[in-house]
Specification:
single chain; 228 residues; alpha/beta; TIM Barrel; eight-stranded parallel barrel; 8 strands; 48% helix; globular
Length: 228
């Protein structure tokens, strides 16, 4: 095998975004992330401060969402959300593009919207991932967004929120990797539930996945590697 447990674990952003999750479930989710030493948690914004306390001093980053899940917040609100999240301890921001503006082909608005969050994030050393919500878009929209994200210097392009009509597909991931600059990484979110799926997208060049089935994926990883 050309991968280790750490290779796979550090691909995973453990997703804690379900609107029904209680405080105790969010705390347990952070502890799972610590136990399995994943890349990050992606947690509901109000819980960022507590999550950052739980994860402090570990190798697991605190992440949250901006303009989630529909991207229709004004740019000023996305900027305010970003600043609040960073103040609370977030090190990674997953922002949703304004989907309606993408479909309207208002590329100046879309560019300015993404740039505003990237600039706030980068000024404070945070990673910014840009969520396209591909299920609503045509390939030409996705290609244009990849170009914009490269031009602005976003850290990641990301397939989905997990709350749209569809999640990550192999065709979309190949397209995003093809049309993104080498400096822009690709995150797959929505429907990545097994180790085999993780390995499949890893082979395409995906470096992060959003996952709710983290325990299942990493227990299978340990099993295959003979780790107890």
């Amino acid at each position: 095998m050309d991968w280790t447990y750490k290779d796979i674990a550090k691909m995973i952003d453990h997703s804690l975004l379900n609107p029904k999750m209680t405080d105790s479930e969010l705390e347990e989710g952070c502890k799972i992330a610590l136990d399995y030493d994943v890349a990050s948690v992606c947690i509901k914004p109000y819980y960022v401060r507590r999550a950052s306390e739980i994860l402090k001093g570990s190798g697991v980053k605190t992440g949250t969402t901006i303009g989630f899940p529909h991207g229709g917040h004004s740019t000023a609100i996305k900027v305010a959300e970003s600043r609040q999240a960073i103040s609370d301890g977030a090190e990674e921001l997953d922002m949703v593009v304004n989907i309606g503006k993408v479909l309207s082909l208002d590329w100046k608005y879309v560019t300015d919207d993404i740039r505003a969050v990237v600039e706030v994030g980068h000024a404070e050393g945070a990673i910014v991932k840009v969520i396209f919500e591909n299920c609503y878009l045509q390939d030409r929209h996705k290609i244009e967004l990849c170009g914009i994200c490269g031009q602005i210097g976003a850290d990641f392009v990301k397939t989905s929120t997990g709350y749209g009509d569809g999640g990550a597909t192999i065709d979309d991931l190949k397209l995003m990797r093809k049309y993104s600059l080498p400096s822009v990484q690709v995150k797959a979110a929505g429907g990545i539930r097994t180790l085999d799926q993780v390995l499949e997208v890893r082979a395409i060049g995906v470096t992060r996945i959003g996952a709710t089935r983290t325990v299942d994926i990493l227990e299978e990883c340990k099993k295959r590697l003979g780790i107890k």
